[in-house]
Design brief:
This protein is mainly alpha-helical. 64% of the residues lie in helices and 3% in strands. The longest helix is centred in the middle third of the chain and has 28 residues.
Length: 478
């Protein structure tokens, strides 16, 4: 509910990056040219954009063709699906890591009601897919090697192959995901020790080879693209890297500290990512996160405590390696499930304390009240404070989207001129700064503009002719 409710209107409009994705997705559906990497807008991995296009085509088929234009909810629904399935994946992973205790349900609940992880599934950004692929690859890796060790060889190998595919597909999500191999390598090293105790190193090698081979197969198309297009991998990251600063390692240490404080002290300042400056974790969750972190350090057990800590550090590393906007909730999104997993460990400890000091019924009542508190806070924070903030209209280009909807509602046969004097048109014939308008109006491609009789006008002479044409609609855009 939190990720799907009123998805087209909250946040209002469609921000530039969402519109750029939509331009590529719609172009792919019209031309059949699905790309593994879209070089525009600083370069973006193609998997999520292609899924947006597939979702649009599916919506058309299911509606019998009544869906004819790009609505914001259509571009955001894949994000909401990925976000929801990440919660399920974290629950299953935490059950494997903790042996099925209360920590699994608590971790999933806190991720499900996390403002941090509710906001991004409601925006059409590819970054939300990175935690999904990592959570599911970890779950399938643990489950598959566990089954394989316990004698369930065939289902174990199937799970390892699926986990490897999830791991490889993660490279098609967002550049921050490229820290994931370090975490997965640590997990494989832990499993090596487990298999060696039973003198079954060969079995470990077989399972690991299958996982790594499947991952390499899934990642291969993107890696091949980067090898044949030098410089495309770095893209935007090279412009915001700390290594372009005078003292990069000092800046890294400062950024790492700011990123560590984002959970409980001061979060992302950008309104598009967060209620500006608010901690990424709701106070009760933040306290449980601290408790879980202390427990992880004290007990010094790799699974689940130290694993979650390593995951957390790697998750915030991409934000710490950037030279702007730190703390950065989007670049550190990979850390959100890890933070909730640590908070889940703290919640399990609190549950055990309540059972010992009071009774199981008291613990159940307290847990139900806690769940209602988290859900109520997230609903109020997002739909009350965040989505209604005046800043949202500017950040999500609501003015252009409203104008685009107005243009799209006009009779298709009537000439419609969008007058943008002095603007430069891109290869599609659209001013780049007006992508949200173009997407909303159905003017994202030459084919779409012909069908709807829409034209962008950039010269004074054309504007004068458009103003005099009988029956035409002319919109002057500053």
């Amino acid at each position: 509910m939190l990720r799907f409710h009123d998805l087209g209107a909250m946040p209002p409009g469609l921000c530039y990056d969402e519109a750029a994705n939509a331009m590529n997705a719609m172009e792919a559906t019209e031309t059949g040219r699905w790309q593994v990497f879209y070089p525009g807008n600083f370069g973006r991995e193609g998997l999520f954009i292609n899924l947006q296009g597939v979702f649009f085509l599916s919506a058309q088929m299911l509606s019998g063709g009544s869906v004819t234009g790009v609505e914001p909810w259509l571009m955001r629904a894949p994000s909401a699906v990925f976000g929801t399935l990440t919660v399920l994946g974290l629950y299953l992973l935490a059950r494997v890591l903790t042996g099925g205790g209360p920590a699994a349900a608590a971790a999933a609940l806190m991720l499900a009601t996390s403002f941090w992880h509710v906001n991004f599934p409601r925006i059409g950004f590819r970054a939300i897919t990175a935690p999904f692929w990592l959570v599911w690859s970890l779950y399938l890796l643990f489950k598959g090697l566990g089954w394989y060790r316990d004698g369930r060889r065939r289902p174990g190998l199937l799970l390892l192959a699926a986990g490897g595919l999830c791991c490889g597909l993660g490279f098609h999500s967002y550049i921050a995901y490229w820290v994931a191999p370090a975490l997965l390598a640590a997990v494989l090293a832990w499993w090596f020790l487990e298999f060696r105790r039973g003198a079954r190193v060969r079995d470990w090698a077989v399972g690991t080879a299958l996982f790594v081979g499947s991952a390499a197969l899934a990642a291969a198309p993107l890696v091949a693209y980067f090898l044949t297009h030098p410089g495309s991998w770095t893209g935007r990251s090279s412009q915001v890297s700390i290594f372009s600063a005078p003292h990069p390692w000092m800046l890294f240490a400062e950024n790492l500290w700011k990123s560590a404080l984002m959970f409980n002290v001061h979060g992302d300042d950008l309104w598009r990512h967060n209620i500006s400056g608010s901690p990424q974790l709701f106070l009760p969750v933040g306290l449980l996160f601290v408790a879980g972190t202390i427990l992880a350090v004290r007990r010094r057990m790799f699974m689940p405590g130290l694993l979650a800590l390593l995951w957390l550090v790697l998750g915030i590393a991409p934000a710490a390696l950037s030279s702007e906007g730190v703390p950065h909730a989007l670049r550190a999104l990979l850390a959100a499930p890890a933070a909730c997993l640590l908070a889940g460990l703290g919640a399990e400890e609190a549950w055990s304390w309540l059972v010992r000091k009071a009774s199981p019924m008291t613990a159940k009542v307290a847990s139900a009240g806690f769940a209602l508190l988290l859900a109520g806070h997230c609903w109020t924070a997002y739909f009350g404070t965040f989505a209604q903030a005046p800043k949202m209209r500017e950040l999500f280009d609501t003015e252009w989207v409203d104008l685009g909807n107005e243009v799209r509602a006009l009779p298709p046969a009537a000439p419609k001129y969008l007058i943008v004097r002095g603007a430069r048109l891109d290869s599609r014939g659209v001013p780049e700064h007006l992508y949200p308008l173009a997407v909303a109006a159905g003017a994202h491609s030459e084919k779409a503009r012909r069908e709807r009789n829409i034209r962008f006008v950039i010269t004074g002479e054309e504007a004068e002719r458009a103003a005099k044409e009988p029956g035409a609609y002319a919109f002057v855009i500053p």
